[in-house]
Structure to design on (759 residues):
């Protein structure tokens, strides 16, 4: 009796989205569930973008993840360069933390100048994220779009309350957008429709389903991603046939168990390695749920996630 | 393989005696087919019909029960591919390895570390539950001694791993009361190992390389009368493990392929020497259908993140996880510290306490029972109204602990502030930020 794997029935495929000017990356293109390579293709492997902040993150980042970047945290361009040269980053995600209205509230033009500097400093695709403050992000990302014309950035998070302004600017200056909705399939679909109505082509939209860290809501993100993939691949939902992006670093490294030092929590083992594993395991889980682009922080977690992607492909 | 009502009806006595509680045999058959009745309710079914019907109604993937000291854990019994389709029922069992040539002192140390490796979270006790005793030199007496030590000094479930039947037998005798799992029956030794499992009533791992060989082996074992079987497809690369786990989950659920209707065992411990990679492989096994996952060592550095992942993957998506309502002191608050309130949805609780702890601001956090609903959902469902919240604040006992009389409410619950002020006339209601990420700045400013 020759056993044959009962095959999944797929009717859809993820549309490819290409981001970046030099060393552009193409994401998406899957014709089966993630890494189900015995029954479909994954022409473009998932990628990892390294996280860079435009302010010194010393106050927020736990020591183990700050350590590798200590020499560059005050200079985002140098930081991005280090990620590319030393750690082989295939993309950079610049987080414009300085613009947070509840923090420094830096003006849009200053942030745009930083984004331009970083974009010029590296020859890999750049993703530029705001702080999820809808009005401020609209202002900041609009300025970034203009300053970085030609760089084919990914701008995000674009939400239902600011998609018009950011979407229009992305369209005008030839960037992609990361469409962010709060862990909900229908809201994700709706925002993609709205962006489509605005004229943003599907080849320029990534789905950001909102990421939850390990032990802190990861399961909601995981399930919604599986449902998005299922709708896209098996239910002909063409508004969801797009690559997904996850902001992993942020969610993982803010959780308690990544912050607790060896003195504070001896029963949890070693803080540095635990944090690396928390980030890598969150990434692994989201990879099998359908992530195409992970924004990650610790070089060791990134190395682990990359080798996993290689081995699964 | 579900039978239709008509197919079941044909096997019933057709006397319509009503003793089953249904007006006719046909009505009873229909109820059986849709899972609304138990076959036992009819006293008159023939033995032959009973056998056929219970075989047909058996779960497609066998739930295999495994003994810990005071508890039984189950692996298998799953019915879906994606957790959101229903839920995953039986969390992956995490196991560590004890080599049979370890010194007594090492064994004791590992067993006592195992007993301590337990973490409380949202009412669940998170822990690894199993040890694999691995025969490294064929010394049956030493192997048995390690198995016995596990029985005596821990509550762990046990897998006995050897390619020598006499070694397995010695271990099984020594650990008899814990009903150890035998690893493994192969094409070469199926009669002997299967026979031992049968004789002692133990679960057994069937190990073969490739689907056809594995199916042949399990068919042979079930033919010997064994039911508690666990599958090792022999895969030792993560890509192949993923494919095999999916194939083995699909076979019984999609194609009614009985030879694969059993849980799996995955062995990241045999896939790499790097503990980080090993844990990462284990995480793929947890996400994708691994029944038992065996690691070399049980180190909390790696186990804790895996336990969190397992909790996430295996929580029931239909029932939100909740925390106990009450007063939670964060960052050592005193009578002058600030007071804030939120819901008892575990996710909300984790995010909010994470931010407050990160802020280092001493805080009394009140957790109101909202039946596990988030702030906005609870508000929309009328479980976080001004009256309700006010009543809770008065009754929960915070007034005895703190002199502060201002209450920070979540930004998304701003709409209740008017009602709340009426309910709590001597309190000042402060509307906090909407996003938890903005809590530290807001709390520091108080
Ligand atoms: C998942 C979900 C559900 C789940 C419930 C999950 C759960 N356990 O709560 C289900 C499907 C059961 C559900 C049901 C309903 N839902 Co609902 N649901 C959601 C959804 C998608 C996410 C909610 C969530 O989990 N948020 C995550 C948690 C962590 O957020 P949170 O508790 O608010 O906490 C954050 C902040 O409030 C803040 N915070 C929390 N506490 C504190 C404390 C302080 C002091 C501070 C400063 C800050 C703070 O920090 C947290 C992180 O930022 C939202 C839409 C959305 N994306 O927001 C709709 C949503 C909340 N639901 C809504 C509604 C109307 C309902 C229903 C009444 C009917 C319906 N339309 O489905 C029912 C009611 C349920 C009932 N039993 O009757 C509406 C509410 C609209 C409104 N404003 O009135 C929403 C906004 C969707 C919408 N746009 O229509 N829902
Ligand atoms: S008890 Fe049995 S025989 Fe009697 S009506 Fe019910 S199914 Fe028919």
């Amino acid at each position: 009796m020759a056993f044959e794997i009962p095959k999944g029935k797929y009717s859809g495929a993820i549309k490819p989205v290409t981001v970046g000017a030099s060393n552009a990356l193409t994401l998406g293109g899957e014709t089966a569930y993630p890494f189900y390579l015995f029954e479909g293709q994954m022409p473009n492997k998932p990628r990892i973008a390294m996280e860079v902040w435009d302010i010194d993150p010393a106050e927020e980042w736990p020591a183990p993840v700050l350590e590798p970047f200590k020499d560059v945290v005050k200079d985002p361009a140098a930081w991005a360069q280090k990620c590319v040269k030393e750690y082989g980053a295939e993309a950079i995600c610049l987080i414009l933390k300085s613009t947070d209205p509840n923090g420094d509230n830096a003006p849009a033009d200053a942030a745009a100048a930083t984004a331009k500097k970083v974009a010029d400093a590296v020859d890999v695709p750049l993703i530029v994220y705001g702080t999820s403050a809808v009005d401020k992000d609209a202002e900041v990302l609009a300025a970034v779009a203009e300053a970085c014309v030609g760089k084919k950035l990914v701008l995000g998070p674009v939400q239902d309350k600011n998609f018009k302004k950011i979407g229009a600017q992305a369209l005008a200056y030839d960037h992609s957008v990361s469409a962010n909705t709060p862990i909900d399939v229908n809201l994700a679909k709706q925002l993609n429709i709205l962006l489509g109505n605005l004229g943003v082509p599907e080849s320029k939209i990534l789905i950001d389903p909102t990421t939850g860290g390990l032990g802190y809501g990861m399961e909601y993100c995981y399930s919604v991603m599986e449902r998005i993939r299922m709708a896209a691949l098996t239910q002909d939902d063409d508004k969801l046939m797009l690559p997904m992006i996850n902001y992993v670093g942020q969610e993982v490294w803010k959780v308690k168990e990544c912050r607790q030092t060896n003195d504070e929590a001896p029963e949890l083992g070693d803080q540095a390695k635990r944090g690396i594993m928390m980030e890598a395991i969150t990434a692994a889980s989201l990879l099998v749920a359908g992530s195409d682009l992970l924004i990650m922080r610790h070089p060791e977690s990134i190395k682990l996630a990359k080798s996993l992607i290689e081995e699964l492909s | 393989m579900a039978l239709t009502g008509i197919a079941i009806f044909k096997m019933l006595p057709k006397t319509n005696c009503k003793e089953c509680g249904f007006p006719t045999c046909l009505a009873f058959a229909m109820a059986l087919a849709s899972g609304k009745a138990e076959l036992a309710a009819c006293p008159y079914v023939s033995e032959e019909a009973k056998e056929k019907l219970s075989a047909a109604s058996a779960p497609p993937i066998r739930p295999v029960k495994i003994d810990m000291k005071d508890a039984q854990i189950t692996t298998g019994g799953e019915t879906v591919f994606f957790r959101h389709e229903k839920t995953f029922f039986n969390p992956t069992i995490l196991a560590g390895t004890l080599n049979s040539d370890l010194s007594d002192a090492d064994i004791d140390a590992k067993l006592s570390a195992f007993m301590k490796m337990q973490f409380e979270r949202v009412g669940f006790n998170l822990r690894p539950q199993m040890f694999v005793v691995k025969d490294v030199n064929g010394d049956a007496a030493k192997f048995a001694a390690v198995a016995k030590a596990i029985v005596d000094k821990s509550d762990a479930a046990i897998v006995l791993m050897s390619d020598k039947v006499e070694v397995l037998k010695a271990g099984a005798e020594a650990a008899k009361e814990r009903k150890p799992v035998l690893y493994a029956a192969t094409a070469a030794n199926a009669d002997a190992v299967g026979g031992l499992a049968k004789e002692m009533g133990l679960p057994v791992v069937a190990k073969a390389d490739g689907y056809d060989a594995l199916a042949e082996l399990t068919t042979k074992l079930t033919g010997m009368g064994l039911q508690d079987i666990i599958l090792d497809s022999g895969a030792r690369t993560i890509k192949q493990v993923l494919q095999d786990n999916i194939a083995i989950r699909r076979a019984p659920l999609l194609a009614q392929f009985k030879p694969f209707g059993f849980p799996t065992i995955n062995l990241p411990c045999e896939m790499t020497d790097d503990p980080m990679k090993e844990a990462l492989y284990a995480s793929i096994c947890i996400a994708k259908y691994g029944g038992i996952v065996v690691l070399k060592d049980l180190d909390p550095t790696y186990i804790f993140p895996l336990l969190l992942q397992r909790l996430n993957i295996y929580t029931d998506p239909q029932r939100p996880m909740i925390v106990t309502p009450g007063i939670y002191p964060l960052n050592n608050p005193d009578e002058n510290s600030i007071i804030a309130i939120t819901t008892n949805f575990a996710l909300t609780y984790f995010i909010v306490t994470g931010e407050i702890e990160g802020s280092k601001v001493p805080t009394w956090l009140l957790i109101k029972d909202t039946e596990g609903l988030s702030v906005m959902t609870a508000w929309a469902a009328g479980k976080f109204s001004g009256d309700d919240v006010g009543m809770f604040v008065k009754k929960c006992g915070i007034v005895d602990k703190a002199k502060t009389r201002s209450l920070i409410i979540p930004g998304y619950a701003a709409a209740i502030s008017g009602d709340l002020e009426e309910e709590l006339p001597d309190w000042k209601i402060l509307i906090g930020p909407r996003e938890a990420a903005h809590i530290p700045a807001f709390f520091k400013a108080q």
Residues 43-312 of chain A form a domain with the TIM Barrel fold (CATH 3.20.20.20). Chain A has eleven helices and ten strands.
